[in-house]
Amino acid sequence: MSAEHPDIKTAPIVTAECEKTFVDFLYAKLGLVIKKHQLKVLHDAIDKGCRLFGHIRWQDYYEALKHDDAASTEMEQLIADVTIDESYFFRDQNQISWLRDHWLPEIIAQRRQQDDLSLRIWSAGCSNGQELYTIAMLLAEALPDMDEWNIHLLGTDINADVLGNAMRGHYSSWSFRATSDSMRERYFCSQNSGHTINDKLRHMPHFTFLNLADDAYPSILTQTNAMDLILCRNVFIYFDKAVVDRVMQRFSHCLLPAGVLMLGASDLIASSMESIRLVQHGDIFYYRNSGSVQPCEQTAHPPASSMQEKPEIPLKRHSIKAESKQRADLHEKLHDGHWHEALNLIKTMIKQQGKTAPLLQHQAKVMANMGDLKAAKTLCDESLQLDPLDKHSYFLMTMVLIELGDEEGAESNLRKTIYLDAQFIEAHFQLALLLIRSGQPENGRKSLNNALELARKAPPEDELHHAAGMNFKRFVEILEHEMEMYADGTQVSTDGY
Fold this sequence. Notes:
By secondary structure, the chain is an alpha/beta fold. It folds into three domains: 16-82, Chemotaxis Receptor Methyltransferase Cher, domain 1; 93-289, Rossmann fold (3-Layer(aba) Sandwich); 389-497, Tetratricopeptide repeat domain (Serine Threonine Protein Phosphatase 5, Tetratricopeptide repeat, Alpha Horseshoe), CATH 1.25.40.10. It has 21 helices and twelve strands. Residues 292-310 and 491-497 have low confidence and may be disordered.
């Protein structure tokens, strides 16, 4: 976090009027509910905000916040400070027991049978990382051949400070109050008046900045797509119903068919969405994605050789107006994460128009978001055969290769993307993350700075090509948070992404 503003020597007094003003403001603007026991936290957050952003009076701070949007630095700092949720390892033993004794054995056996040694798990609102490292420990216990698996562990939060703590993996003894001595001794070493998780597990997760209330997901850019399990515990207590409904809808699009969403006990809500249903197992509840892949979608992508032997024969072309409407419909379905509907429309357009690089690229993106990475890679290859200079196909191939664990191939494709377009902001961003995680933090920070400088020059309200719903103004703020996270040279994951 940045240093206090040099002109502010004393903190403003938080009066009763100030308290009520901020409580009402947070509820009206963000749906955040500040309860009586949280008022001291709110007072401290107001004090901190005034010091950081140079406001002598709390009224000035309030006026600045009132005219900001929810994505501003000041607003995110206030949100982070009033929603700090102290966590610890193996929190909520009932849920942990269900994951360890039921869900993990079942999905591991299923993936072995399918010869698909992959798992994708997201801790949304990960705080200091204890929840995601708990999952890493459960996986280490359940998988004697863990090195052969492609495991994607994602942790996101709106607080860059706690994300930095998560990447360091160092915790006080208080974080182990629900952890057995044997587990602590097996996976941690005593260090600096605390305990640091061993390098193998510390290198498994990827921690990054994401605001559940505002940012666009699912997206292959942030790798919030095709999840087997999403953990979002004790986060919804800060949101109102409208925000919760929106986040639940997005989560349902992030999950694979039969994927699981687990909330905290205090977060439990009734869901009327057809795509996700509430399930009870003993004393615990969870949500399961009820979406399923249709038979036609399972066989939608034969091997590349078969595709070449039996090319699509275009039907009679529609009018330009009809094709324009189809493109608009497709953009809307992709934007909203309606993958099955988008896939069916793409197949119709290919029959009518023939295969084109953009259509195959869209199809590859859909398949990646639905978890079929092999089909996505095949489609990217075919798209590049039709247009060897398509930067977007190279970039999408990069994201697929990252998820497949091929970092060398991913870096090669990123450099091709940047060669084709030196201003490709998302490519510089992904190259930065790849370099940092491969043990080249200095080069990574240079690439991250390149992405930031380019994003600052882009039209603020324009959307990113590979993150529907996110504009460059928002992306600049995310990049600034990423710069802050990696500013101290923290060494993070080198095993996959």
